[in-house]
Amino acid sequence: ILEPLTMNAWNHTNEPNFVLMGLTDSKEIQLVLSVLFLFIYVATVLGNTGMMLIIRLDVQLHTPMYFFLTHLSFLDLIYSTVITPKTLENLLTSRKNISFMGCFSQLYLFALFAVTECFILSSMAYDRYVAICNPLNYPVILSSRRCHSLISVSYLIGAMDSISTISPIITLNFCNSKVIHHFFCDAFPILALSCSDTQDAEVNIFILAGATLLVSLSIIFFSYVSILSTILKINSSSGKHKAFSTCASHLLGVTVSYGTMSFSYLKPSKSYSLGKDQVASVFYTTVIPMLNPLIYSLRNKEVKSANIMEASTFILKGQTNNSELQIILFFVFLAIYLFTLIGNVGLIILVLEDPQLYTPMYCFSCALSSVDAYYSSDITPNMLVCFMSKNKIISFHGCATQMFFAVTFGTTECFLLAAVAYDRYVAIHSPLMYAVSMSPRVYMSLIIASYAGGILHAVVLAVTKFSLSFCCSNEIRHIFCDIPSLLAIFCSETYVNELLLFFFVSSIELVTILIILISYAFIFLTILKMNSAEERRKVFSTCGAYLIAVSILYSPSLFMY
């Protein structure tokens, strides 16, 4: 028995790597899927982080219902993070290995958060039952202690369930094949690699998954039967509609979550279908965590109105009141704006039309030009309108949108400048490895990551700023909706918001400046080793324009923020 085991099989005592085959072998489809998964993941992070911040910052949402929703958003965020980053790595690189312990850690965390989410959904159903069927005793029955107890029990059951699930699997012996035909370490694809008898492990999964779904669904079912019975007794149609509307989002979330998970786990491993089960897995590991914030925010009036303030419009008071000077400034800024558009759009067209310029350096230049064009278009047109009209009003949503895009493009530009510095470092310090180190997949990933970082930063700042209350004055002492000028008209305590602004801006600028400084320190050392003065001059000339751009961008932003 021992000899074949050592030659043909392994287990937790001699741990090889597994290979995750992923979703497709096609390089083109992998690239498309990587972009799609990245956007879904960014949307998941933004949506769930935004939901948690809204609930945390709005005192009106400090209720049991939103307490449970905060934990649901947290679970969706972590749940997705357990799976998606590794999936993106597999799609973007040729390295598809995952260690034995890494694989089972992923399976453990996935099971933990999935089971915990089931019981939090049942806790939310119980919360709705108490709120509708016993509203007078609602604060007593669902006290803070009771809510924390329900959450703690949900996590405890999740931990116990996940340990019980992986224990029989991790002790199995596995055959020669290390290839997992899936994009993450799920139970049934791992069982397919085992030499041992997997019947006990399959029965164990079926019992645990069945018990989890049965218990949590029973709580949800009986809660909603009681809710329906109570609603039918309400005489007012508006009362019935209000009661139904508070439950609709939860029912939709339950249906979406339980439907896909039941399809995947309540069946024997022999009926596992690679295509169908992978589609279902993509849905409940990546899509559902993105959809949940949408489902709960769109169906709940409290969340939608969490950032509605008395001021529906703002007045931009940053321009001069001198009408003659306004006309002069209008033409000056119009000329600058046209020059900005022509220059940046012209550079993009030039690069796209010339195949010789399809290099990382010029692709980064295109990305920077597009950011500059968008950045300028976000602010300048509205400023020109204010110069030429007495109406200097901007709507609440227009102000929020302007601030969001200004932060997005400003942050994206910082990350892109850091990426350009890294590109110059590789080109000068390791020219022979340049084509490999800065392949199209690498530099496109850097560009996409820069945009994703900009969007994430903008969402966090926008949510924290526009969830506060404004005072009677709606006059913004600036030419556009910038964060410091908005903080000046808040009624609410702004200390936390100022701290967040300082933390995020300083972190982004510190990280990007460090990347630039370290890159150019290595570049400078490489240049000093060059014997030819002409070669040194040529290398310095390629970096000079970039260093000027960095100085111009970072100096005012550090002064302002």
UniProtKB/TrEMBL annotation:
G-protein coupled receptors family 1 profile domain segment(s): 47-296, 343-561
Q: Which GO terms describe its molecular function?
A: G protein-coupled receptor activity; olfactory receptor activity
- Membrane-related topology note: Multi-pass membrane protein
Its GO CC terms?
plasma membrane
Keyword terms? Cell membrane, G-protein coupled receptor, Membrane, Olfaction, Receptor, Sensory transduction, Transducer, Transmembrane, Transmembrane helix
Q: Which Pfam families match?
A: 7tm_4
Q: Where does this one sit in the cell?
A: Cell membrane
Bilayer-crossing regions: 29-54, 66-85, 105-126, 147-170, 205-231, 243-266, 278-298, 327-351, 396-422, 442-464, 501-527, 539-559
Signal sequence, renumbered to the chain: none
Recorded hits in PANTHER family, A to Z, give: OLFACTORY RECEPTOR (PTHR48018)
Q: Which family is this protein grouped under?
A: Belongs to the G-protein coupled receptor 1 family.
Q: What is this protein identified as?
A: G-protein coupled receptors family 1 profile domain-containing protein
Task: Tell me which species this is from.
Answer: Myodes glareolus (Bank vole)
